[in-house]
Amino acid sequence: MTEEQYAEMQKKALEQLRTGKSMLGKDGAFAPLFKQFLEAALEAEMESHLDDKERGNGNKRNGKGHKTLKTSTGELEIITPQDRQSSFEPQIVRKRETILAESLTSKILGLYGLGMSLRDISSHIEEMYDMNISAATLSQITDKIIPEIKQWQNRPLESIYAIVFLDAMHYKVREDGKISSKAIYTIIGINLDGKKDLLGMYISESEGANFWLQVITDLNNRGLEDILIASIDNLKGFAEAINAVFPKCEIQTCIVHQIRNSIRYVASKDQKEFMKDLKLVYKADTKELAEDNLEALSEKWGKKYPIVIKSWKNNWGHLSTYFSYTPPIRKIIYTTNAVEGFHRQIRKVTKTKGPFTSDIALIKLVYLASQHIMKKWTQPLNNWALTIQQLMIRFEDRIKLSINL
User: Fold this and answer.
1) Which of 14, 70, 158, 212 is the most exposed, fewest CB within 10 Å of its CB?
2) DSSP string of 259-327, one letter each residue
3) The 250-253 sheet, strands edge to edge
4) Residue 252 in 3-state DSSP?
5) Spatial distance between the Cα atoms of 240 and 166, rounded to a whole number of angstroms
6) How many domains does the chain have?
7) End-to-end alpha carbon distance in the chain
8) Burial 327-337 (b: 16+ CB within 10 A, else e)
9) Where are the alpha helices (DSSP H) in 326-379?
10) Are residues 244 and 125 in the same domain?
């Protein structure tokens, strides 16, 4: 670069700095330097590639190519070296790579994870960076997280979790021209430090105890050896599936789910009075008082709503687990609200979507949204110091074995 060219670049850079324009974009002051750097680096990589072995195999340079790179500051056209055997694999600008800046890729993934459609992201990128990125290219960019998802799905887990919440959410996926229902099985654990973690997400055709057994087995295979308390919905066979893998785990069936299912079978004119009586059961101070109130409920409403009363009595063993704990722990485990709250946040992102084009499209969006949500999971639950002391008294041997006290 001559002195005149350098002086002109300085002048242009200062002007762009004052006006806030990009200095690395297509017309940026530093674009020529950035272009020179990339092309020089590619030439150096080619020289390194064409070593004696490559040349001995008959490989050599084969002219030049052109590539337009999209960066977070605009588009940039560079000249790329080529070899005859097409075995050159550059690292600074990879083959078929059209998006150079990781920051731009991160922005795209971030927008996608917040629920923006590929079309909206394309419009946003064009408006912000004056470049056009097709929906197909954006889809390829979001596909980059698939290996990350697989690695996350198979990562090792801690050996013990104090409390685990298990539930499923449901979506529509288009397959072979037909729309089918899919369940995403979600597991949120609270470790011995009181911090939440998303242990896994699994996709299946529908929610069922058999698939839950596969999920729980996978958690065990990834290093989870013990769960103190599991909070679940009242899906038939669910508790048995958990105890088949973790026989010492105490099961708490979600009271809120049970109430919702019960009230569906109570006439609207009776619901207010029925709920007043039912609250005496699940809000009782002790298990004995709750059972007395359940009998009273049965005597008053049993003939009119026998199915509802039978459901409470048949499921009472797992519905009443929380009575063994003090109110602070009861509040945590009596409902699956921890995982349902997570699901509500996910649905805020997915609610504008129609049927997903594939299982991969579904899991990509849910995974990115979940990573955004989990950034806030940095602190232990409120009053966890008191909670863990109570758990250590109740499960002394199991916790001591885990943390080598």
Assistant:
1) 14
2) HHHHHTTS-HHHHHHHHHHHHHHHT-SSHHHHHHHHHHHHHHHTTT-HHHHHHHHHTHHHHTGGGGS-H
3) 196-204, 178-190, 160-175, 226-232, 250-253
4) strand
5) 14
6) 2
7) 69
8) eebbebbbbbb
9) 327-333, 337-350, 359-374
10) no
Instruction: Report yes or no: 147 and 332 within 8 Å, Cβ to Cβ.
Output: no
> Are residue 84 and residue 166 in the same domain, yes or no?
no
Query: pLDDT, tens digit, for every residue of 10-53?
Result: 555 556 555 556 555 556 655 665 676 567 667 877 888 888 88
Based on the fold, state whether residues 114 and 190 are members of the same structural domain.
Answer: no
d(CA 181, CA 126): 35
Residue 405 falls within a domain, yes or no?
no
Structure tokens at 125: 């990128």
- Are 249 and 389 within one domain? yes
Separation of alpha carbons 269 and 14, rounded Å: 76
pTM of the model: 0.71
Integer angstrom CA distances of residue 19 from 22, 27, 122: 9, 14, 25
What letters, b where the CB count within 10 A reaches 16 and e where it falls short, cover 273-300? ebeeebeebbebeeeeebbebbeebbee
DSSP 16-37: HHHHT--SSSTT-TTHHHHHHH
What single-letter amino acid sits at 105? Answer: T
> Cα 379 to chain center, whole Å?
18
Rounded CA gap, 340 and 105, in Å? 31
Tokens (6 digits) for 238: 């669910």
Copy the structure tokens of residue 61: 């340079």
Does 262 map to a domain? yes
| Residue pair 257/191 in contact by the 8 Å Cβ criterion | no
- The DSSP symbol for 381 reads P
* Tokens, residue 379: 């602190």
In a domain, 119, yes or no: yes
Sequence-separated (6 or more) residues with CB below 8 Å from residue 274 = 263, 266, 301, 305
